[in-house]
Amino acid sequence: MDERIIMDELVRHIRFPLQFDIKRLKEDIIKVMNIQWTNHYNQNDYDGKWTSIALLSSDGKSDTIYAFPVEKSELKNTDAIESCSYFKEILDAFPFEKAAVRLLNLSSGARIKSHSDHCLGYEDGCFRLHIPIITNPDVVFILDDKRLIMKEGECWYINANFIHSVANKGSEDRIHLVIDGFK
Questions:
Q1: How many structural domains compose the chain?
Q2: What is the pLDDT of residues 58-84, one digit of tens each?
Q3: Contact yes or no for 80/143 (Cβ under 8 A)
Q4: Which positions ≥6 away from 140 have C-beta within 8 Å?
Q5: Which domain does 29 fall in, by range?
């Protein structure tokens, strides 16, 4: 079967009918802003400042932000999540095994270049959810040539196998809770 036909049949994104409490999300963000955020490891894929902090990681360290585990392993709470009761509540509500749980901050004026992430669609057994915590109308998120407008508190599945990019053209940083899981 032609690979293009197969890709055309795949779901690119889903906005789930979930709405998380924006006030509580932002209260938890405030609790972690004084922790050292780590520059994203894919430094060729962005311009500007793109940082992350792990809430769960294989070694329990908040600077272990690598998102693609070689194999399934139990994740440990990092110091960053310890005081964040709402983040814990959200993660506990998702009954799947987590592969990575991070906060991603794309600073004002920064952009993530067009790229795709290998084997990060539901059909591969691993998937990515985005929960926007802080965003603005000038964030331009493009997935497979279509702009997605993700609002604070929503929950989105993004098939990262497809080409995607993000530009934060707004005056404030964009911060998402990003959860990678195994199906």
A1: 1
A2: 999 999 998 765 567 789 999 999 999
A3: no
A4: 147, 166, 167, 169
A5: 3-182
